[in-house]
Design brief:
Layout (H helix, E strand, L loop, with lengths): L2 E6 L8 E6 L2 E5 L5 H7 L13 H5 L28 E5 L5 H4 L11 E3 L1 H13 L10 E2 L2 E3 L7 E3 L5 E3 L2 E3 L5 H8 L13 E2 L3 E3 L8 E6 L8 E6 L3 E4 L10 H10 L5 E4 L15 H13 L5 E4 L5 H13 L3 E4 L1 H14 L8 E3 L9 H11 L3 E2 L1 H6 L4 E4 L8 H4 L5 E4 L7 H16 L3 E3 L1 E5 L5 E5 L11 H11 L3 H4 L8 E2 L10
Helix pairs in contact: 4-9, 5-9, 7-8, 9-10
This protein binds zinc ion.
Length: 510
Amino acid sequence: MVSLTVYDGANGIGGNKIYLEENGQGVFLDFGKNFGKYGLFYEEFLKNRDTRGIHDLMYLDLLPQLNIYRPDLIPSDLSLTQFPALNVTVVLLSHAHMDHCGNLGVLRKDIPIVASPESIVIMKGMQDTGTTSIESDTTYLSMRQPGDDLGLYLESIASMNYLGKDLYCTEMPSEGLLSFLSTRPGQDAPKARKKLEPSSCAHYTEMDLPFEVSAHPVDHSILGATAYILRGDTTIAYTGDFRLHGKNGESTRKFVNQAKDASILIIEGTRAGPSLGEEKVTEQSVCNVCQESVETSSGLVIADFSARNFERLETFQEIAQKTNRDLVVTAKDAYMLHSVGCVDGVCRTESLKIYKEITNKTRRKWESEVVQKFCDGQYVDHTTIRSNPDNYILCFSFFDMKHLLDIKPEGGTYIYSACEAFTEEMEIDFRRLWQWLRRFNISSCGFSMEKGEGADYNLCFDGRYHASGHASGEDITWIIEQIDPEDNIANSYRSSRVVCQEFRECYPGR
Ligand SMILES: [Zn+2]
């Protein structure tokens, strides 16, 4: 009989780590980072120490108490031998948001990952352009060793190559994908000490799995979201994150049809509560509202949406075209678009401009070797934008506000097209963002600060500017009714007809 253990991800923000086991062999559904739990202890300037491997994460219960982690991340004062050594054959990854993939890096190297080609390249793209940490080791690992006599301090082995993880793709991997996985920008530079040793990447049907697994694309706010159906003694359907109201809602409906024989349904519940009179916001309605705002704007337009929300990027590409402006993205965004293009050969950067930051590009090999190579004539700098602000829509977020000090815009419009603030820290960031906009006389759409009592200002959002990446409560109910999992079997799982893995008000959009 199958056993199902939710090690993390219930009643919280992401962090999904759901284990299914049958006949002594099991699979994890996602292995994400639980931002809610991390936030109890950590913030921007107090982070877990990579130099202590997984010690801090285990001690604070931020990882399940299991013996399934990389030996090179275990310092001498930590032992895992008392914890269950699960026989994990694979992680089935639903998508490349960090709350679903953000702890993959600490798992033993011999535990492979099944993921869509888009999820694989997005994870690698993030790794190539980000700072190295044990948690970001999603597609390749930087192995560590004791750096002190006591074995308490762990450091990267400078002389050892990066080791690619075994990946299995939900579609036949293309040549472009394999080539993208085989190198890391900067590895051929004269002073580079580490190269990437790629591992295997094959179709997932070539794996021996304890269940008969099928992968199904679903719609979400990131490319490559995948639901899974696992058939063994019992049929189990896992949705990951999904929605019906995006441009690819039809793919979710197809999955629902395929999953009708499932006895157990593990479904996300981000917006499982009543809809509280929310209007139905779709990607198309967001497009219309944002277009209207651009049309009535003069001066520079800044569009702020989640970095890997490629669908929203397409929406703004369409708006830019219709309003005779050029869409400008950061070099990092361009690298991510190039990464996704390696899957299907489609060039997504052709009609874009790239913002030329004041930076030393020799330190950003992913930019000098990849973005500059493919988009060389497409760069625009701060002076060009300053001279012709009406010609551009700039894809910036709060964290890019420092570049406004170089552009020095005089007026303009900031369109906030992402989720509402749901933590105190986010509210503080919005108050800072407001100050930045005031400094440059930029008006805002999508969020505002309204005068409250006394000297107070209240943060308000306009829901028309963002379509959630998650299904509405009504759509979740519809899917549960369609799949109609069995009462009697589900009853053994705490008398619930479905295992609703997350109940949360909002979503971080990471
Ligand atoms: Zn997600």
